[in-house]
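Hi R.,

Here's the chain you asked about this morning:
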Amino acid sequence: MRSIAFINQKGGVGKTTSAVNVAAALSRVGRRVLLVDLDPQSHASLHLGLQPADGEITVYDVLVRGAPLAEAARFADQRLTVVPSNIHLVGAEVELVSTPERERCLLRAISPHRENFDVLVVDCSPSLGLLTVNALACVGEVIIPLQPHFLALQGLGRLLETITLVRSHINPELRVLGVLMCMYERGTRLAQEVIDDVRGFLAAATPEQPWSGARVFRTLIRRNIKLAECPSFGQSIFTYAPGSHGAEDYAALAAELTSDGAPQDGIVAAATADAYAAPLIPEAARAIAATDSASTAAARPESAPAEPAAAAGESPSPP
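And here is the predicted structure, written out as tokens:
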């Protein structure tokens, strides 16, 4: 199972938007995706129309009380399963203080289900605390969403220090896959200057550093009002506005992720109903089997440009 965490301790850079829509894009091209909302604000859950009621099991119960992952998981869409969050997660770091190997709680919960999914996507909280360390201990790759502004660069060094520490002491396989530019505006010179600075920094990495080999993704996520609107409808950009620039960009990013030569263990080119013989959630398997013929491959990815053009015809209003 390929595992990716979207991390940036600075809020408002497109982290949750990217985690949700990349998960949705990968599920649309046949991957079985598990999305874990590890943010107490539960924005990833809300983005997909999931708002657990009081008493319902969430990722908080999985981490703190040892609840089975299957009891917290929700079927959000075809091939997309979500482990939602709620405000109770804000107290998890304090409650886990006395837990042995507390930085591996998420890893222990997910490990039994690695064969049930092709891709794990974790939306991290905007902090570098224990929840983020749990995510880093659980995944193999990190994507850093970044708004191409000067202030957005300030916390990058501290984030990379945290990744280095986790790789040294907890997860030696951890690496930074790349930096994703969000809310990109082609017409500004500042945006290109920031991109050039980040590219230069990544190119200067030494082999022992976790970001060695990382790059700025070719796909640039353009500023697009549809991306700001779709969470209020509880939908991914592919359901809410499939013809928008936002949908084009995240489809292009998903295509880049599945063809960049990164580790692909467990990922299949096309999924059939036979792939769901032992799913995490039986209800999800029944829903998939009802719509997918056992002999028919899943839908192919939509055509999308490798490098999106400028946002013509779209409202440039910020999210």
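One quick note: The two ends are 33 Å apart (CA to CA).

Cheers,
M.
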